[in-house]
Design a protein that fits this description.
Elements lengths: L1 H32 L3 H13 L1 H12 L3 H25 L12 H20 L5 E2 L2 E2 H20 L14 H30 L3 H13 L1 H12 L3 H26 L11 H24 L11 H20 L4
Antiparallel strand pairs: 1-2
Helix pairs in contact: 1-2, 1-7, 1-9, 2-9, 2-10, 3-4, 3-7, 3-10, 4-8, 4-9, 4-10, 4-11, 4-12, 5-6, 5-10, 5-11, 6-10, 7-8, 9-10, 11-12
Length: 325
């Protein structure tokens, strides 16, 4: 058992280091190309930092652990929003008031995609189209549409004169490779923890695996906070959450049939996790829309405080209602 925990720890540390390298590379790419920080965070940083969730979700399907697969996809979203709230508090500034209003699109998109998943679970998985479900295909289509809308909403800036890309693209690629390998190792170790301790797959997937696979978002968020690249930070969180939901489609492929219809006893706890993620996304949307722009730059951000308290309260509710091993 000690060896299993060492694999979990080693994988988590590798993911954390790769995430730090990624955000530095992404920030340079944004400055060199003139693409907005929000868009770079949404499409580059978000997709790469979501690779552990993708790998873990696909691996969970491949090793016949649907609770871990879906729990990881949904649990990571709630944890990511907890990260956003905490980073806002640590920024020491009116964080949400300094974010672009375009993030409302991706935050709302996460609610929409998660609602589709909840509906599919409630209906027993939906219509099957061979190895995948109609719902999974709908998720992919909606995601691509939302990505296009987000791209149209972002505004770029002039490239920084005399600044080239350098090794940034290669470092981003290397970070992605490390994240994938560590994600596979982490998921296998998580299943062993579930088998040896008797803790349900939904608990392991939604808490342990979701926490570990969200470490790239933690690393990227801390790096972006140090650079005061607040829109890159928010773009990563909201973009990651949208991508995480779509990983259900790839879980279908490795599971061999619609995975949302095979959750059995794990279905109810996972619907609670999904509801928490949707609620936190709604809090973030309200924060983006209602945060006054006139707040002092050095102040406690009320929206970040509400988001953090909501996340902690949601975890407490899950512990009472659905996640007592």
């Amino acid at each position: 058992m000690i060896g299993v925990w060492l694999v979990l720890l080693g994988s988590a540390l590798a993911i954390l280091a790769a995430g730090q390298t990624l955000v530095r590379s992404a920030e340079r790419i944004a400055r060199a190309t003139g693409l907005s920080q929000g868009w770079i965070g949404f499409i580059l940083v978000a997709v790469v930092t979501s690779l552990p969730e993708l790998v873990a979700t696909m691996t969970g399907g491949g090793i016949d652990a649907p609770g871990i697969a879906v729990g990881n996809a949904l649990g990571s979203n709630a944890f990511n929003l907890g990260i956003l709230g905490l980073m806002g508090l640590l920024s020491g500034t009116a964080f949400f008031s300094r974010l672009s209003s375009s993030h409302v699109l991706s935050a709302t998109g996460t609610v929409l995609l998660t609602a589709v998943v909840v509906g599919a679970v409630a209906m027993g998985g939906g219509i099957s189209l061979g190895r995948v479900s109609l719902i999974s295909c709908l998720l992919v289509g909606l995601y691509l549409l939302l990505v296009y809308v987000q791209f149209r909403a972002e505004e770029g800036t002039p490239p920084e004169e005399g600044l080239g890309l350098g090794a940034a693209p290669w470092l981003a690629l290397l970070s992605a490779v490390v994240i994938v390998i560590a994600g596979v190792a982490l998921t296998y170790a998580a299943k062993e923890v579930s088998l040896r301790t008797g803790i349900s797959q939904s608990v392991v997937g939604s808490l342990l695996v979701a926490l570990a696979t969200s470490l790239p978002e933690v690393a990227a968020s801390v790096g972006a906070l140090r650079l005061r690249a607040y829109n890159l930070l928010a773009g990563d969180i909201f973009g990651s959450n949208m991508f995480n939901v779509v990983t259900v489609f790839f879980a279908d492929l490795t599971f061999g049939r619609p995975i949302l219809g095979a959750l059995e006893a794990d279905a109810w706890p996972l619907m609670l996790v999904a509801a928490l993620g949707m609620g936190l996304s709604a809090v973030a949307v309200l924060g983006l829309m209602l945060s006054p722009k006139g707040l002092p730059r050095r102040s406690l951000d009320p929206a970040s405080l509400v988001l953090t308290i909501s996340y902690l309260g949601g975890l407490g509710l899950l512990a009472v209602r659905g996640f007592v091993p």
